[in-house]
Design brief:
Blueprint (H helix, E strand, L loop, with lengths): L1 H10 L7 E3 L5 E5 L3 E3 L2 E7 L3 H9 L11 E6 L8 H12 L6 E7 L3 E8 L8 E2 L20 E4 L13 E4 L4 H4 L8 E5 L2 H10 L4 E2 L8 E2 L15 E9 L2 E9 L7 E6 L2 E6 L7 E11 L5 E10 L7 H16 L10 E2 L6 E4 L4 E4 L3 H8 L8 H5 L8 H8 L9
Parallel strand pairs: 1-19
Antiparallel strand pairs: 2-17, 3-15, 4-5, 4-14, 5-11, 6-7, 6-14, 7-8, 7-10, 9-10, 9-11, 12-13, 15-18, 16-17, 18-19, 18-20, 21-22
Length: 410
């Protein structure tokens, strides 16, 4: 559920885990519409007992014992950021049983492991070509790059809209190559877990035979009398689509209702946060956001701070200090202690950082920026700012921080 909450925050760009109310604000709304978490997955079923055969062959060379005979791939089919046409095309081949006994017919070590074009059942003397449907439109996006562990569509050279039934696993980060040729190769999925990726790596360590033509880089598991037969090839028995999406409902409530005038009401899919009182001093309240999975009823509660500011116009730098004050106040709360509504110290006072057993001067802009970025006293400002590209010139920021609590001029 923690992962689901993080995923929800990422997808809701207009909602932040810290809410700010200015002196003139009457109401704040939060979109709490049902959130769909997780993905549909494509499960690539390997030949029977392949995991046991790999365990026996590789033994202690493996980081863990393999206990599954499949590879799970999360399908990237979101209408905005995914490849819905490509996933639908792949699913059509699955539904029409085109990928039964499908071979991995091309292996280029450290590059790609390719399949989807040929099948070889045990009762056939040789492989057969899988019937292909009409080519599909290329859906390449730099946001879905050809990185290690992803799966992408193969296509004809110099023809970006030629993908049909063949796909390949990226065995390395091939983005500099495959993202920049033939208008990019469309990534439509990625291995779900480290175990799935490990399986791909193991299959990619197979020996290679030159069987001529399209099978010039044919991976195989074993040889039968110096000849490759159907059971000797690297195959998937079948591929199935499994829906692992879950609907999550959210509700927002006031955590310290008996100590604050803050109220929450819900209208349709929006939570409205309001108060009948005027903000007379900088203060901090807490809301509880509950995420509940519809099917199981499993839920997770997350505390959300609400910063009530006496200023009408909060500049970006003022928000930075707000965040620092919230973090500093939270540090005063011991584990297990109830978090209540609290008034924050004014800019001329100090608060106590219990972890450092010292007072923190709220005028200390260097210290405040450390708190705003989740760091603590003891490191230099430059050390704390290293790697934070959006800060830019820290000297300009520090000059601005000296005037943080000054109300904005009309």
């Amino acid at each position: 559920m923690h992962a689901i909450f993080s995923e929800w925050l990422i997808q809701n760009d207009n909602w932040k885990p810290i809410l700010h109310r200015s002196a003139s604000s009457q109401q704040h709304s939060v979109d709490l519409q049902t959130f769909e978490s997780g993905h549909r997955i494509a499960r690539f079923h390997l030949d029977d007992n392949l995991a046991a055969r790999i365990n026996a062959a590789l033994g202690e060379q493996l980081p863990s014992v393999l206990t599954q005979d499949w590879i799970d791939v999360s399908l990237l089919e979101d209408q905005l950021s995914g490849a819905p046409l490509t996933v639908a095309n792949f699913e059509r081949y699955v539904e029409e049983n085109k990928y039964t006994d499908v071979m991995l017919h091309r292996l280029v070590a450290g590059f790609v492991l390719q399949g989807g074009g040929f099948q070889w059942p045990d009762d056939q003397a040789s492989p057969s070509t899988i019937e292909s449907f009409a080519p599909i439109e290329n859906e390449f996006s730099s946001e879905r790059s050809n990185t290690r562990g992803t799966i992408a569509m193969a296509k004809i050279g110099n023809d970006p809209d030629s993908a049909t039934n063949q796909w390949f696993f990226n065995l390395a980060d091939n983005s500099s190559n495959l993202d920049n040729q033939n208008e990019g190769f469309t990534v439509f999925g990625k291995t779900k877990t480290e175990t799935d990726l490990l399986f791909v790596d193991i299959l990619a360590s197979s020996p290679i035979a030159n069987a001529g033509g399209v099978f010039s880089s044919l991976p195989y598991i074993s040889l039968t009398e110096n000849t490759i037969t159907a059971p000797d090839t690297v195959r998937f028995k079948s591929i199935e689509i499994i829906d692992e999406r879950r609907d999550i409902n959210f509700e927002l409530s006031v955590n310290n209702a008996n100590q604050t005038s803050l109220e929450t009401t819900q209208e349709n899919d929006r939570a409205l946060i309001s108060s009948q009182s005027i903000i007379e001093q900088t203060s901090l309240d807490w809301l509880t956001l509950r995420a509940t999975e519809q099917l199981s009823g499993q839920h997770l509660d997350q505390l959300i701070p609400v910063f009530n500011s006496i200023h009408d116009n909060l500049t970006g730098h003022q928000r930075l200090l707000d965040n620092a004050l919230i973090l500093s106040s939270y540090l005063k709360t011991t584990e297990g202690e109830q978090i209540n509504s609290m008034a924050l110290a004014s800019q001329t006072e100090s608060i106590v950082d219990v972890d450092q057993s010292k007072s923190i001067d709220l005028q200390d802009s260097e210290l405040m920026i450390r708190h705003a970025f989740g760091t603590f006293p003891g490191l230099s400002l430059q050390q704390n700012l290293s790697g934070v590209d959006e800060i830019g010139d820290s000297s300009d920021l520090l000059n601005s921080l000296n005037q943080l609590m000054t109300p904005a001029q009309p």
